[in-house]
Amino acid sequence: MSGPAPDGSFGVLVTARLKSARLPGKALLPLAGRPVIGHLIDRMRRLEPSGPVILCTSFLAGDDPLAAFAAAEGIALFRGDPDDVLARLTEAATAHGLATVAAVTADNPWVDPVSLGRQVRAHQAAGNDYTAAEGLPWGAFGYVLSVPAMLRACALKDDAQTEVWGGYFTQTGRFRCAVVPVADPAVRRPGYRLTIDTPEDYRLAQAIAEALGPGATLPAICALLDARPDLAAINAGVEQKPGRPIRLKA
Questions:
Q1: Residue 122 DSSP symbol
Q2: 195-227 pLDDT, tens per residue?
Q3: Using the 8-state DSSP alphabet, how is residue 181 labeled?
Q4: Is residue 82, in this structure, part of any structural domain at all?
Q5: What secondary structure letter does DSSP report for 187?
Q6: Which residues constitute the domain of residue 28?
Q7: Does residue 227 fall inside a structural domain?
Q8: pLDDT band at residue 8 using 50, 70 and 90 as cut-offs
């Protein structure tokens, strides 16, 4: 892998696959007249700072519909390893000459561009390697990474299964990591689950879109769930799958 461009360029990397044991094809499921991933793309186009939005999927034929979606949306596409997500993201970032990226996943249609923009700015101001958010609903946030740190993490890892890759930054003691707490009390709702990984998650997303429309802001979504605990209960029992333990080279 070659290094990033030296000009500090920024972009958004969207991780997407169509395989899923609990909800197959979830990224392209319809939601208020648009695929789930389309709502995420719409939000990332409003992100400040702005940068190219790059859909990062696999080279497998089963993910060809995602490539077709990227072409129809006019966004960049990168196809790489199906299972080594950290390598795929790193290769996408270097291929596009990026120095800093926001990493989000396609099954999170309600990522908050306001909070993520604040996270990016904090990351760049502090010179961090990895910056997470704290206090948002699950699925409403992304991660901000420096590309040189991504290259170093790829050199450290001894595993080609990196669907969950954050531990390579946070558990090794070799990276400058930070957490940005939520600034707006209207969206500090860590108990709410807004990702789409199960049929229950999808039903909640449909209820939100029906009530608020496709352009719903995160404050409006949180206010809806505050007022309608019956909606929040739809997926309250869903457990987030644990990540695979990290493996480092000797």
A1: H
A2: 999 999 999 999 999 999 988 999 999 999 999
A3: E
A4: yes
A5: G
A6: 10-187
A7: no
A8: low
Amino acid at residue number 142: G
Q: Does 241 reside within a domain?
A: no
Token representation of residue 84 = 């080594």
Give the separation between CA 105 and CA 102, rounded to whole angstroms. 10
Instruction: List CB contacts of 173: < 8 A, sequence separation 6 or more.
Output: none
pTM of the complete model = 0.95
Q: Which residues contact 195 (CB under 8 A, 6 or more apart)?
A: 105, 107, 108, 138, 139, 201
Q: Is 158 inside any structural domain?
A: yes
Instruction: Report the alpha-carbon distance of residue 15 to residue 89 in Å, rounded.
Output: 8
- Measured CA to CA, the distance from residue 60 to residue 38 in angstroms comes to 21
* CA–CA separation, 12 and 198 (whole Å): 25
R_g of the chain, CA atoms, integer Å: 17
**CA 107, CA 194: separation in Å to the nearest integer?**
9
According to DSSP, the residues that pair with 138 across neighbouring strands are 193
Q: Tell me which amino acid residue 248 is.
A: L
Q: What is the CATH number of the domain that holds 151?
A: 3.90.550.10
Overall number of domains in the chain: 1
Write the pLDDT tens digit of every residue in 68-102. 999 999 999 999 999 999 999 999 999 999 999 99
